[in-house]
Design brief:
heterodimer; A: 295 residues; six-stranded mixed β-sheet; four-stranded antiparallel β-sheet; 14 strands; 28% strand; B: 277 residues; OB fold (Dihydrolipoamide Acetyltransferase, E2P); Ribosomal Protein S8, Chain: A, domain 1; five-stranded mixed barrel; four-stranded mixed β-sheet; 15 strands; globular; nuclease (chain B); Exosome complex exonuclease Rrp40 (chain B); exonuclease activity (chain B); NA-bd_OB-fold (chain B)
Chain lengths: 295, 277
Amino acid sequence: MNKEAPLSVVERDFILDALRENVRLDGRSADQLRSLTVSFGEEYGHVKVQLGKTSLIVRISSEVAKPHDDRPFDGIFNISIELTAMGSPAWENGRQGDLEAYVANVLDRVIRHSNALDTESLCILKGVSCWTIRADVHITDYDGNLIDASCIGIMAGLQHFRRPDAVVKDGQVIVYGLDERVPVPLNITHKPLSVTFHTFDEGKVVILDAARKEEQASEADVIIGLNNAGDVCYLSKFSGSPVDALVFVTKTTVALEKVKEINSIIDKALQADLAKRAKGGLAEQARAENDRLIG
Amino acid sequence: MSSPLILLPGDDVPADYLPSNASAPLRLGTGLRLLSQPNPTPASTPSNHVLTATQAGILSTDNRRNAVSILPSSNRRYIPTPGDLVVAQVHHSSADYFHCMITPQSPHALLGQLSFEGATKKTRPMLRGGDLLYARVLSTGLGAGTEVELTCVNPATGKAEPGGLGPLNGGMVFDISTGMAARLIRASSSSSDQEDGVAGLVVLDELGKKLEKAGGFEIAVGRNGKVWVDCSNSEEDAVKATVAIGRCLTTIDEHNLNPTDQRKLVTKVLRDMKIES
C-alpha cells in the first residue's frame, strides 16, 4: 500500500475555501516558509534538516574509485534517496513509489546536472582513481515538501563535508587519514536550491512550501531551481492542471528571495559549526602548551 | 492512595488502589484487562479482581462511578477499544457495510448501513468515499485478522447517543496526538469550575468564551487523534475561526502548554487571525 491515504472531502473543500480567503492552515502567508533549522552532527557531512514537521538526515561520504571510462578526468557524484517506513506509514521498505522516483529525479537535475559540485576537482589520477562522493538522504518525518528539504540538506552537506587529502607519489595514490592531514573541503561552484510552489483553484492561488495536506489538495506543482545569483537551473511542471506562464515569471522573483534566505540560514549554521570545531580541532590538539598550571 | 501509580503493560493493579465502592459494579476503562473472575463466594470483595495493565500510564480511579482506567499518554498509533468515539472516513461502501478508515494504512473498520439513528433500508444515509463520520467503536474482535466494527447508534436505545453521532458535514479535521484527544474528551465531558480546567485543558472554555460573539463552534473529538471543528454559524469569519481553533489545539498539543500559556495562546492566535472577541 505504497500510497498516502486520500484526503476527505471536507478537508479538501476547506483547504480550498481557506486559500480563496488567503488563509493557510498553519496561519502562514502564501509565500512564507515553515521554520527551518539546519544542524550538523559530529562528523563532516552529517546534516539534520527540520522544515516544519518534515525532517531528514543527509550523510555525505567519500570513497576512492576508478573513474568512468568515458570520463577519465571526472570524479563521481551520486545522490541516493529512499523513502522507508521510518518516514511515513504510507511508505513501504524496498518498494519504489512514484514520489521517490520524482524526488530523486528533481534532486539529480537541480544539484547534479547543474554542476553544483565540481566533479573535475575530484580526479586524483587520470583514468585510474578518483573520488566518489555519495549523498544519502534519510527521511525521518514527512509533512510535505520533501524536495526542498532534501535539496537544503544535500547542499548544506556538500558545503560541510571534508574529504581526506590524497596525493600522487611515483604513480602511487596515497590517502592520508583525517588525523594525519587537514581534510579538504569540496569544490562547490554555486549553491542551487529548489523552491516548490503548489497551485489551487485553477491556478489562481499559488502557495510556497506546502504541508502534506495542502500538497494532497493541490492541482499542480511548479518547481523552480536557482542559485544566489538568480541563474535558473531547473524549471518544471510535470503533471496536473495547466498553470499560467506569468506564474513562472512572478514566482521566480519570489524563489530568488527564498533561495537567498535559505542560503543565509545554511551559511549561519555552517559558520557556527566551524567555530565550534575550531575550539576542539586539530589546531587545539597540536598546541605546544598544556593545561598544567605552572606556578 | 496518596501518590499516583504508574503501571507498565503486564503489571497487576494493587487491590488497595481500586475504588472501594461496593454499590455499583466495577467499570474498567481503557488500558486495563480483567484476568480472573472474582470468587463467587458471598464473602467476595472487589479486591478479588486481578486487573492487569495493557498500556503504560498513570492509574486513574473514580470513586463515584466506581471506575478505574489508565490515563492514556500520547502515542502516535491509535488502537481501537470498544466504546471509543472516533472520527472515521468512509473509504467505500458495499451491500451491507460502509468500509471506513479510522487510521490511514490500517485495515478498514466496518459500519453497518443501518447503524444510524432511525435508519431503515429507505432512509439510510447515502455516504460516498471521502465522507466523514462521528462513530463509536462497537467491537474490536479477538485475535489477529478480526475486523473493527463501528456504530452510530446506541444498540440498546436506537438513539444516536451521545448526540452528534453520524455523518459530519462541512468544517475541517485537524490531526492531534491520541493523548491530547483523550484529554479533550475528558475536559469536555465533565464540566467543572476549576481554575486550571479538567486534565489541564482550558482551551475549549477559553475559545468558547471568545468566539461566542462570532457564533460559537461545534467540535467532535475522535480518540483516533482527529478533531472535527465547524464554525458555520459565524458566517464571514467561519474559515478564520476554524483555522484559529485548529492552530490552538495543535500548538497546545505540540508544546504541551500549561493553562496560563493556553489562555495567552488563544488571545494571540485570535489577534493573529484578526477575529474580534
